[in-house]
Amino acid sequence: MFQHQPCGHQRGPLMGRRNYDHLTRDEVDCDFPGGGPARFWLWVFLGEDSVCFVMDATRSSAVLADHVGLDPDTGQLSDTPGGAARRLVLSSDFYTVYASAGRRADGLVNLYCWAQARRHFVRAGDANPAQLGIWARQRVDRIRDLYTAHDALAAAWHTPATAPSPRAERALAAAYAGWDTAIGVIDTVRQEQMTSPGLQEPAKKARATMDREWDGLTAHRGYPMIGLDNNPAERAIRGPVVTRRNAGGSRTEDAARDAATIFTVTATTTLHGLNLLTYLESYLDACGRTDDTALTGTDLERFLPWAASPDDLEAWKQPPS
Q1: 41 Cβ partners below 8 Å, 6+ apart?
Q2: Using DSSP, how many helices (H) and how many strands (E) does the chain show?
Q3: DSSP per position, 59-121
Q4: R_g of the chain, CA atoms, integer Å
Q5: Residue 114: is it exposed, middle or buried by C-beta count within 10 angstroms (0-12/13-18/19+)?
Q6: Which residues make Cβ contacts (< 8 Å) with residue 264, sequence separation at least 6?
Q7: Distance CA 7, CA 154 (A)
Q8: pTM
Q9: Are 59 and 95 in contact (CB under 8 A)?
């Protein structure tokens, strides 16, 4: 029922400053208890105005390609309906499928998750608290400073977009300088450790991960309006994970895919601040007026939250009658 829409479709003063799609994504494995060895993966894609869950048997690049529009042969992004080249900013963890897509597709930018980078250092410290505890805390503190600098940059970036002025531009320049200082401290230590002998194995792994994903981590500078991690996707997928555990999972593939559709509808209505029961009541009532058949065309488009009228959106936010 719902599909991802690009950031450029949003209205308001920020529209002119965004000429790309942005997706945040995550995935989790789903077993079918009692149904044999089948295992599926529940993917979630967060756009500006929709949340889409996809149930698939694999974590392969085909799932990403199908959802975001990557040519299976060339790996390139499909053009817009008007024939213009697309740009896609993808917030994700370090899973190789996303890195590979970013290397192949022109216009696809990977923004890697700083929360996951931080997690690697925390785990290294936990592996040997006596020798790596302080080492890990120092690096976590530097990442915390980067988060603070990024928050300041995001705030400064929005101000010129909504109320441009010389003062706002100066504040934006200062915020960029703060971001550069924070990332510079992290980079200096990273470079020093490349030639540092005797680093313990857990610390080596954490450092190697940061080195490998450095370009995607530092690319956040060019997108201050986007957060430093993919935590929104992880939070979005938490509800379905809890539901799966409480309900015992899905027994069949069809039931699992139906669950993904339900998760898509409920998450997207929540994203728009709608009352789910009121929204579904209105939709089912409309179906009843068409001889209980599924809505199509303009009748269906009316219920797409990003295309709905202000009056409908306001009505769907109210408690059920």
Answers
A1: 27, 28, 29, 30, 55, 56, 57, 58, 59, 63
A2: 12, 5
A3: -SHHHHHHHHTB-TTT-PBPPPTTSPPP-EEEEE-S-HHHHHHHHHSTTEEEEE-HHHHHHHH
A4: 22
A5: buried
A6: 1, 2, 50, 51, 52, 53
A7: 17
A8: 0.83
A9: yes
Structure tokens at 225: 């309006």
Give the whole-angstrom CA distance, residue 291 versus residue 82.
36
Nearest to 50 by CA among 308, 244, 226, 281: 308
**101 alpha carbon, distance to own chain's centre:** 15
CA-based nearest residue to 109, from 99, 97, 96, 94? 99
Note whether 169 and 160 are within 8 A (CB). Answer: yes
Return the amino acid letter for 87. R
pLDDT in tens, 1-52: 333 333 323 322 222 233 446 777 666 676 554 454 457 888 999 988 889 9
CB of 131 within 8 A of CB of 200?
A: yes
Selected from 2.60.120, 3.10.450, 3.30.470, 3.30.420, the CATH number assigned to the domain covering 7-112+230-271 reads 3.30.420
Phi, psi of 131 (to 5 degrees): -105, -25
Residue range 174-198: mean pLDDT, rounded: 90
pLDDT of residue 76: 92
Q: Tell me the C-alpha distance between 91 and 184, whole Å.
A: 22
H-run or E-run covering 98: helix 96-104
Instruction: Give the ranges where 105-230 is alpha helix by DSSP (H).
Output: 114-127, 129-162, 166-194, 201-212, 214-218
